[in-house]
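Handout, section B. The chain below has 160 residues.
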Amino acid sequence: MSTISHDLAPFLVEAKRRTYAGLDDNATVAAPLLRGSKQLEHRAAPYAYRDIYFGMGFFVGQETVSRDDRVIWSMSYSGGVRAEITDRDTFLAIYKFLRQALLAVRAEEPYRGPRLFEQADMVYRNEVEGSLDRFHGIETISRQDGALLYELRYGGGLLR
């Protein structure tokens, strides 16, 4: 792994825990670059993290990490709660559970959450292939009985 990758993974974990996973939309900047988007940011020199996404039930977004004002890493993602789930309480419970899973992100795979996370009646699974320089994955949330509630696909890596 390059020097950039060595300290990039711990930074990504910190950034993710200090933005959506830890603070939900409370980490949103007041004036996002793209109108209608949510924009979350975290800085710890020499790195700066930015997550910009659109939507909620189904959403699309991109995370970037800059080092010394040059974007060096990016991940795009899209997914959300299944369309037939319209009950607000269920919807909010799924995203609350998702944030709990995302808080368990680890430096070994700093993309989304852990490979498996269970709490109450929900199960989070994250299947990922690759490494920090090039990866892709899919995360799902199901009930214990196997009913799929949420799905997201993601991919990215070091830019060159």
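Note. DSSP finds three helices and eight strands in the chain. Compare this with the example in section A.
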